[in-house]
Design goal:
globular; Rossmann fold; 40% helix; seven-stranded parallel sheet; 2 domains; 14 helices; 17 strands; six-stranded parallel sheet; alpha/beta; 427 residues
Length: 427
Amino acid sequence: MRVLMFGWEFPPHIAGGLGTACYGLTKGLAQNGVDVTFVMPKASGDEEKDFLKIISADNVVIDSRYSEFYSLNKDVSFIEVNSKLVPYIGMDDYFNVVNQMESGVFETWREGIQRKYNFSGGYGPNLMQEIERYAMVAAEIARQEEFDIIHAHDWLTYKAGIAAKQVSGKPLVVHIHATEFDRSSEGHRNSIVYGIEHYGMNSADMVCAVSDLTRNIVIEKYGVPAERVVTLHNAVEPKTTTVVRKKNVKEKIVTFLGRVTFQKGPEYFVETAKKVLEKDDNVRFVLAGDGDIMQQVITRVAELGIADKFHFTGFLRGSDIDQMFGMSDVYVMPSISEPFGISPLEAMRAGVPVVISKQSGVSEVLKYAIKVDFWDIDATADAIYGLLHYPSLTKMLSENGKAEVDNLKWESVAAKLKRIYESVLKK
């Protein structure tokens, strides 16, 4: 079986859990005998390529006659309108354009033979433009590559997946790692992003959600029939080396690691820190990450008078994450809405006991984690205090938690995904 997969990032250069999940899933598929061609906007060249083929979209040459694909679909929140008048085309190209119009996709022809698009591969101000161009490149790749099924990760790649499906006629599986209902609060949701998500999910032959929590959102908020939505929980990559438990301060350390944004609940982490420090001053809190509400989090720490007990590391990756877990006595994930959440698995793999919100997908697969409501800072503070002061509780959760996580393997997740592919291909 051959899969044409579209993602936005891949280790070692990642901004969050999406790239980590793509790595684990593609490696797991290879272990299950599935060949994966992974397309990303801009590859760096240092990605691990032993188990998959990587295509960097900025290296793909596009025939200018096929340079722009626009889907005329009523579910999209914005529409590009083009003229049917295409100058200087031959008879074959004329019928190609007519067929495109009848199928809902229109190709504009521009003078010139070939071109490439530049991609930043990030999440900057030109993101929407890059998403559109990525879809154009995806159509060209779909013409060139041999594959059986298409797999697109999150809203950034849905248009690319749809373009590949329209060109090839092959079935499309889309993967939901987070929705606009997770990322934004009520009244602040991005209608364009929601429109792309709705378009992608309803254009797919099957939708994979990373948790039952996310599956319910897809069905209820996006109107996708329940029989076309399946839950596919994440896993964690096994650690080949042992995380060294070492710290240079005498106090206990409680860690938050993730994007400093509304969804992840860093403000609740700060309020909880204040509660814990009122009972025990021998604790330091570390917020590892960066994001759009960093300034207000820093301001709140100052307002509460706990700046001398609070540390901001910025975004961490690779060995720096291992070092942080090696220093940590407790890991906390107070997410308001977390489709899954891989970081608690990474902490447990390092032997760190975790406190996670009940409003997270990862809580569906973990037994040896303390689960609290994200808004209940008293319960969260009590859980942290208990882990810091009752060694037997800490030892039980650390040992059993590590064993539990070691059994959550990407190879098993990929085996389930392969069965999903097979069921789609039989239709």
